[in-house]
Amino acid sequence: MKLYHIYICCLALVAQTTLWAQGYEVQREKRISDEERVVRGDKLRGYRILPEISLPEQINLTDTITIGTHHYLTPEHRSLGVAYTGNFNSPWQSKIFFDRVARPTDFIYFSSFQGMEYRPDQAIFYDTKTPFTFVHYHKNFKNVEEEEVLKGTLSLNLGKKINLGTEFHYAGAEGFYNANRSKDARYRVFGSYRSDRYDLWAYVANDYYRISENAGIANLDYLLNPDNYSNGRLRLSSRDIPTRIPQDILYNRLRSGHAFVSHRYKLGYRKKVEPPTDSLKLEEEAKPMIKVEDADAPEEPQEKPKKVLGEFVPVGSLAHTVYYNKQSRRFISRTEHEVWSNLFGTPSVELEKKDSKGNVTGKYVLPNDTAALTTLHNTLSLSLLENFRPWVKFGLSGYLRTENTWISLPNRETGAYRDTDSYFSTFVGGYLSRLTGQGLNFRAKAELGILGKDLGAFTIEGDASSSFKLFGKQFGLSADAKLLNMRTPYFINHHHGTFGWWDHSFNFSRRLELAGRVNLDSWGTWAEARTATLQNYVYWGTNARPHQHEGVIQMTMLRAGHRYKVGPLCWDLEAAYQISSHKTAIPVPELTARADVYVDLLLFKVMGLQLGAEGYWHTSYYAPYYHPTHQQFVAQEEMRIGGEAPLLNAYANFRLKGIRFYLRMYNVGEAFMDNKRLSAHLYPYAPMNMQAGISVDLNN
After folding, report:
1. What are phi and psi of 335, to 5 degrees?
2. What average pLDDT score do residues 558-569 get?
């Protein structure tokens, strides 16, 4: 019997024993799934701030994570398909085109850390009646290849109006492959003040990343045919696989420090509330009746009922938002090595060797690239708020934003690192929204660059959603669209580095995107269709340089998911089919799929258990290669990956009141089937390893 047969039998035996073991009866826990992201009522509320108009938008907070606890800190949780560099806390790229950002930022070196840094439009502010504490810790059972994550959030109210809090995230990983270390340290300190007339939200935050670059696997045959190199061992160690840079001698360091302040003054009135008529009558009836002998007495004057001031009703608001961000990047090695030119080609910058007398004796290459971007945004807005009268069914806002930017890059002539450029842009824009309606809800935004470097840039985007019943089932329909005319990011046009030095002037790029989605919650099913028409699209070619495709590129995607359960058996399935009309500019797998199958049980009436396995698979394609010199995923035409064995993980999630803990065997498929293990070209997944974690929520 093969090993994977034994594995399947063991899983079946464990499930059967769990279900029918004597001494207790398996019971279903009657609760709303945390994965459905329900609101915790008024005990804890979360808000995101729309930076342009300084309006808070209440969001649904996950109520004590239960399902999926094991993968919330893993790369696979970020998208349906993920390419990364072998370390779970490393640069990554989604294999789903529409999961990537539509508008890249000027400081492109952070683009491979999408969703891993603090941003004003994603920062959460809280309002809580009791102190809220959430801590999540993750660790694997390795010594040499240790990985560890600690993240947490603390928030508390000082009275009804003031909230203070902090959140932090630390991740350190030695990596399973040579020269594959990473370190991530982030924190945010935030606070808010909310009253009838005045609101304020503010935070300061820092992000720091340190990545050791190995440039990928030196000989892919170690992954494709590991038995040829195992020397009789059962399994080849990941440390035995040679990397193109064998030691920790090349690094990328990224920093981002930022501050955000948004405040608004609300204009409105207070409702005047009359005492209820019924209560007045009762008070009159309760008065003693006048005696006959006192009938000639003068009547006492009766006081009119006083009007009571009610709640404040905001009609509009004046708001001001300031955002300051300083980002820097350093690509550095302190070791002279011939591998630099062999890997990255002809250098653009060479250093001179000098003898003791100062005479030039030769040249050498030593990477030491620096870049910095500083931005300051100021936004003024005026808003007319939704529902201040019963007939006011939508909100309307207008704003004016100025953006000042300062650039620092090396200078080829002087060799100095200094301020090299600065520019400004001015935008006007508006919002139209209806978010609290019973039928159709919608949001629309329009923005135009009227001065400066972004003159002529514009954004038109919106979404709409509705729901209805058909054949007794609840359907949800939604659609969204966007039309963008964007300036090419500065550091795509200008990159000054040891390997690659260019100053381009690419044209504005345009993107028209349309999408529709249908939800059938009672069946746990959803589906969406999405298309994008791209003009002047900028991509990274096979020479690791940016190129602009002047024609039109068409992207189309069909995506669907299904989540359901029958008794204790549950499953969560998702798949996406993508078509790219230009496979060099946008290489994506045509079909990408994910499956998660588990049993959901309640043990001893107190402990929840999910025991299952998940798999990720996609068709073969020319997966991009991560290039360390500018930290972008670039096109390659040497090798296709995918279309073979999936990435499989087995896990067990446990829940006991406010505590969640889990065990996870990552890449368990390696134990019983051939696994090429490639995530991106030259970059593999982590090998099979056991992981564990615990999360504690003290706001139950």
Report:
1. -120, 125
2. 95
Provide the token pair at 234: 């059962």
Structure tokens at 88: 């779970």
Per-residue pLDDT at 28: 31
Helix (H) or strand (E) run with residue 480 in it: strand 473-486
The H or E element spanning position 283 is: helix 277-286
Task: Flag whether pLDDT at 295 surpasses 70.
Answer: no
State the Cα–Cα distance between residues 612 and 565, nearest whole angstrom.
13
- 276-292 burial, b at 16+ Cβ within 10 Å, e below that, comes to eeeeeeeeeeeeeeeee
Rounded Cα–Cα distance for residues 90 and 113 (Å): 8
Count of residues in the chain? 700
3-state helix, strand, coil in the chain (%, to 5): 10, 50, 35
Check residue 308 and give its pLDDT: 54
Listed in sequence order, the residues at least 6 apart from 123 whose beta carbon sits closer than 8 Å to its beta carbon are 48, 49, 188, 190, 203, 205, 260
SS3 248: coil
Q: Apex CA 92: angle with CA 528 and CA 208, to 5°?
A: 125
Report d(CA 305, CA 324) in Å as an integer: 54
Which residue in the block uniquely carries the two structure tokens 């509009």? 316
3-state DSSP assignment of residue 274? coil
Residue 648 half-sphere exposure toward CB, CA atoms < 13 A:
18
Tokens of 452: 């400066």
- Predicted confidence at residue 358, as pLDDT, reads 74
Is the pLDDT confidence value at 290 over 50?
no
Q: From CA 323, how far away is CA 321, in angstroms rounded?
A: 7
pTM above 0.85, yes or no: yes
Q: Which residues contact 524 (CB under 8 A, 6 or more apart)?
A: 562, 563, 564
Here the tokens at position 646 are 């999936």
Taking the C-alpha atoms of residue 654 and residue 81, their distance in angstroms, rounded to an integer, is: 26
Reduced to 3 states, what is the DSSP secondary structure of residue 604? Answer: coil
8 Å CB contact between 516 and 481: no
C-alpha count within 13 angstroms, C-beta hemisphere, residue 582: 21
**Residue whose entry in the numeric block shows the structure tokens 């502010």:** 125
* Residue among 17, 5, 52 at smallest CA distance from 432: 52
Q: Give φ, ψ of 7 to 5 degrees.
A: -60, -45
Q: Tell me: the pLDDT tens digits for 109-150? A: 999 999 999 999 999 999 998 899 999 999 998 888 999 999
Model confidence pLDDT, tens digit, residues 580-632:
999 999 999 999 999 999 999 988 888 999 999 999 999 999 999 999 999 99
- Beta-bridge partner residues of 132: 155
Supply 650's token pair.
């087995």
pLDDT tens digits, one per residue of 626-679? 999 999 999 999 999 999 889 999 999 999 887 899 999 999 988 888 777 899
364 and 336 in contact (C-beta within 8 Å)? yes
Q: Sign of the C-alpha dihedral, residues 490, 491, 492, 497? A: positive
* Phi and psi at residue 437, to the nearest 5°: -75, 160
Backbone angles phi, psi at 137, to 5 degrees: -125, 135
Tell me: pLDDT of 34 over 80.
no
pLDDT at residue 232, as a whole number: 67
A 10 A CB-CB count for 189 gives 14
Which DSSP category does 103 fall into? S
| pLDDT category of residue 574 using cuts at 50, 70 and 90 | very high
Cα Rg of the chain (Å, integer): 30
How sure is the predictor about 278, in pLDDT bands with cuts at 50, 70 and 90? low
Q: What's the pLDDT tens digit per position in 214-225? A: 999 999 999 888
DSSP states of 579-595: EES-TTTS---SEEEEE
